[in-house]
Amino acid sequence: MIASQGEKGESWKFKLLPVYGIFLLNFKSGETDKVRTDLVIADRDTGEQKGRNFREIFIEFPLFNKTEAECETPLDYWLYNLKHMEQLEHLSFKGQKALFNRLEELARIANMNKKERAEYEAALKIYRDNENVMDYAVKTAEKKGLEKGIAIGEERGRAEGILITARLMKQNGISFEQIKLCTGLSDEEIENL
Question: For the whole prediction, is pTM greater than 0.85?
Answer without folding.
Answer: no
